[in-house]
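User: Predict the structure for this protein chain, please.
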Amino acid sequence: MQKCRSIFFLLNLIIALSVSYSSAQSAQANTLKCINGKDAKGTKWITSFTQDTNSDLKRAYLEFKKEKEEENKRLSNEENDVPQNCNGIARPPLKKAINTTFKLMSTIFPQLALWETLTYYWEHLRYEKQQRNSIQENTQIIPKNSSKSSIINTICISEAMKNETGGNSVYCNTAIDKSSPEKKRLNKKIPDNSIKECIDDSMVDYISFSVNSAIQCFSESKTTDFGPLDSKLIFEKLTNESAFNYTLADPAKGISIGQLTSPAIRELSESKSGKAILAKLSESESKHCNGFKNVLDKPPSKIYTNDVCAWVSPGDGLARSLIYSIGYYLTLRDNYIIPQLKKFNSFTYDSADWAEAIKSATTAAYGREGIKFVKLKLSRLTPNSNARTINSALQTSAYIKEVANKKNDLYPRIQANFQRQVGSSEQQEGESLCFINYPNP
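Assistant: Here is the predicted structure, written as structure tokens:
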């Protein structure tokens, strides 16, 4: 009995001490924590992100966060619903006490502050087997029996956002409202490369939500005949284009997260197939499309220098850029690349080799060399050329090399960080950490 009382007293003491921990956390809340280095002193991007509350995408994100918090609270209550202790008195939950102890100790000994990191990766560990399977599935053009794409792990987007991008940025303080008297101020270009902008966890979380929502929106809306999008391909493309920095703005070269140009935008907004994609998204009942509905009405046909916030604002700008970047990729693949590859005698959809050839050709067409490069390379091959020969010929593309260099740098960094943070000795490839099969409902 004495032992039981001692344990009861100790657990209550730990929970009482958590009050001081919570106070310490609140005091630290106002301290900016930049994931991209201590030299990131700029606050324009964070301010822009924080102030944008009027867009569908931001509202969808906040609703998602609320649902997630409620679900976590429900699960926590279920875990903490334990029997009475040996005195017949409701005892403090052991798991909560252990969590609190780790957090309290981490404030005293910073070198022990691993608990948040461990819980951050817990969901990944839970789906470890599924993650490995998703890599195998992504070698096929699309799993035909599914309408879900794999989820891009937030830790991978976070690591990609640490890449240096260069170029000018525009920071818009609120969502675009063409009737607003502040429109002129919002569209003001603010290039300042002398100060490195801070990126914090809340921004990473928002961008991860936005990108994954856009991918699932396209997949569940069945915008093409070829099934769900390849999340790995989209992740590597956006890493190469902008490192997920949607504020990049140079209308002459490219703008926002997918570095769009006016011809690419017209291809989606004016072509028959492009309009069909936008119509399917607009009519979709997928919950993942809720944050993008507003930007599907009256699509712009080009990028205007004095209206860049339509593409780089944290809400509608990011939403519009994701829809047009992914949509343009699909129109290239379905309307230009596949018809070209069908000219080869051995072409088939049910082949991993041909899936890779399609990806390589579409990736090259998306880059600076464009569709002309792909057509030129294919014209030099015979109709009997197989998929591997075609894929090999396309590897001379400068854009494909850029994508390969970026991912060859990124995935080992993700692997090293994961093993260092969780103390794992298992040699798990960074690539397998990044793509999680969509969980069954």
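The first strand starts at residue 40 and ends at 42.
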